[in-house]
Amino acid sequence: MKAASPDTVLVVHPGAELYGSDRVLLGSVTGLIREGWRVVVVLPAPGPLVAALTAERAEVEFAPQFVLRKRLLRPRGWGELLTTAAKGVIGAWGALRRHSPSVVLVNTITIPVWPLVARLRRVPTVVHVHEGESQARPWLKRVLYAPLLAAQRIIVNSRFSLAVMADSFACLAARSQVILNAVPGPETVTPPRPELVPGPRLAYIGRLSPRKGVDLIVSALRLLRDAGRPATLDLYGAVFPGYEWYEAELLSLIHSSDLTDAVTLHGFVDDVWPGLSAADIVVVPSRLDEPFGNTAVEGILAARPVVVSETSGLREATHGYATAFGVPAGSADALATAVARIADSWDAILPGLEPARAEAIHRHDPAAYGRAVAQVVAETAGPIGAAHTSTRDAVSFRA
Fold first, then answer.
1. Measured distance CA(258)–CA(397) in Å, rounded
2. Nearest to 9 by CA among 50, 31, 43, 38
3. Which terms does the record give in the GO molecular function aspect (predicted)?
């Protein structure tokens, strides 16, 4: 094995889009570079994330990745599992040999070969956990979290995610640190409309998937309009490959509900702020537990009230904000009722939007987040990382 390359962090990520964990990765890389690290990011394929990374002076390369999908754990997926796992091990081994980094940062638990291969090559490893699979079967959770046993340090995005992980392997909590996600706000904020005339404009930003409950917003919109409230809905996001059937079902629901003129599908958007500026209320209707709620925080940063499902991560992300309203998960009726109450209380809600925005800026400051991640990486790197250890405050807390 070659000697470690001083000041190099090899960062690994399973995709190249610009959704939640992708943007958090960008914040991690930015923080590392600002603390003086050379950063090489390994991705499986090109995508919009690449330009954002290179703009921050990160080096980007592509290598085969083994991304653990639940379908691969079924008997019919075992062949693909073995094939892609072998390719992933070869890709990881080659990247580690080429760069001989002083530390590896693995972003998400879905690329499990990296902590194992790094351990074999004696490279210190940090894993950043964005997942909180609380509803998975116990054996599956243990499979998902077992590779973390090979990591020296673990960053977790919420207390909820930490609790789910520790439920599988209690020993992982001792090497873990919760660091709240960085969520950059808009450069300028468009003030909310003083009156919701003719009706509220709803917005959803994120993946179009059954887990995210996008169809629930459509059903809630139908209920609002049936009640005489001329609300509209803008959807910003696209389906994950393989879920095209859900988009077809969503379009069918919109058509059958006579909402074609009230719902606009914009597809994936790189810049979320114009859409949030055009909205009155942001809705995050996830059916299942979310490890955190970046889009809910983005709504607060845009000075808009948000309606969120009362799942653990979303509840944690919006705790303490007077302009965030929780509803039972999976209920279109509850979503419609919450939107109607916000519209009826609009004058009382408006004064609280700016204080909530100021608090969100403080909690999710990108600079503080970047320093916190860089601190963990530097500590994991040992003597080599001493020169990159920041003494400034960071928005983080020990597990």
1. 49
2. 38
3. glycosyltransferase activity
Q: What domains, with CATH codes, occur in the chain?
A: 5-182+365-398 (3.40.50.2000), 201-363 (3.40.50.2000)
DSSP letter (8 states) at residue 306: E
Q: What is the pLDDT of residues 194-235, one digit of tens each?
A: 999 999 999 999 999 999 999 999 999 999 999 999 999 999
Distance CA 31, CA 37 (A): 9
**Under DSSP, is residue 198 helix (H, G, I), strand (E, B) or coil?**
coil
Query: Which is it for the CA torsion 374, 379, 380, 385, positive or negative?
Result: positive
Supply 144's token pair. Answer: 């998902």
Burial class (CB in 10 A: 0-12, 13-18, 19+), 5: middle
Measured between alpha carbons, how far is 314 from 317 in angstroms, rounded to an integer?
5
pLDDT digits (tens, 9 = 90+) for 288-312: 888 888 999 999 999 999 999 998 8
Encode 234-272: b = buried (16+ Cβ within 10 Å), e = exposed: bbbbbbeeebeebeeebeebbeebebeebbebeeeeeeb
Residue 274 CB partners (closer than 8 Å, separation 6+)? none
